[in-house]
Amino acid sequence: xxxxxxxxxxxxxxxxxxxxxxxxxxxxxxxxxxxxxxxxxxxxxxxxxxxxxxxxxxxxxxxxxxxxxxxxxxxxxxxxxxxxxxxxxxxxxxxxxxxxxxxxxxxxxxxxxxxxxxxxxxxxxxxxxxxxxxxxxxxxxxxxxxxxxxxxxxxxxxxxxxxxxxxxxxxxxxxxxxxxxxxxxxxxxxxxxxxxxxxxxxxxxxxxxxxxxxxxxxxxxxxxxxxxxxxxxxxxxxxxxxxxxxxxxxxxxxxxxxxxxxxxxxxxxxxx
Length: 272
Fold this sequence. Notes:
Number of domains: 2
Order of helices and strands: HHEHHEHHEHEHEHEHEHEH
Distance between the termini: 18 Å
CATH topology of the largest domain: Rossmann fold
CATH class of the largest domain: Alpha Beta
Helix content: 40-55%
Number of helices: 12
Radius of gyration: 20 Å
Strand order of the largest sheet: 2-1-3-4
Shape: elongated
């Protein structure tokens, strides 16, 4: 996969450079939900932004946040982050004519659909404006992510289970988490905070499987507020009250090289 990605990036760069004069200034806009936690931002958001800069040297790389709450809290600390619409407007005014947007959303839920709608509303202002897919868009994406995470987080003993905690959504796209859960091995499970499968669903499965020890792992791009509060406190306490020994591995998906490479594949597909 690594060789393929390098070849694709080189080919894309060569094609883009040859058309630079014709197409004008090029930009990549990385769109994140965002986080107020500096440490996980450096390991995830900053890491993938830097990776995109290295992969697409002919384009200028920018970022935007979709969470208005995160933007507001960061502004109170003197850290300025812009929304996708604000960044697109700024790019238009500064002469960028070709923009490829790549979100780091996990599923095509409300946040992603809103991003696509916002891009469509301003698309006519650019020669080219394309939006890449979120992490789990196709069946192949699901299989790839499951394979990466099973290697990353192997269960050490038969009664040791891994529970991935996703954000979840009221949107129908939460069904993707159900599909992901079905693809993992028998010692790995997926549950969500605001969708399905639920924590209760996971507890029932863990008890049925005879699990004794459970490691909680975020199924989110960053290990931010939800990791620090919902996972580390609420979910841990609930599982312990049900008799499980609980460990935490607060690693965001953005810290996993294979996951970042999959986003790179998505932006290459969008750019083509």
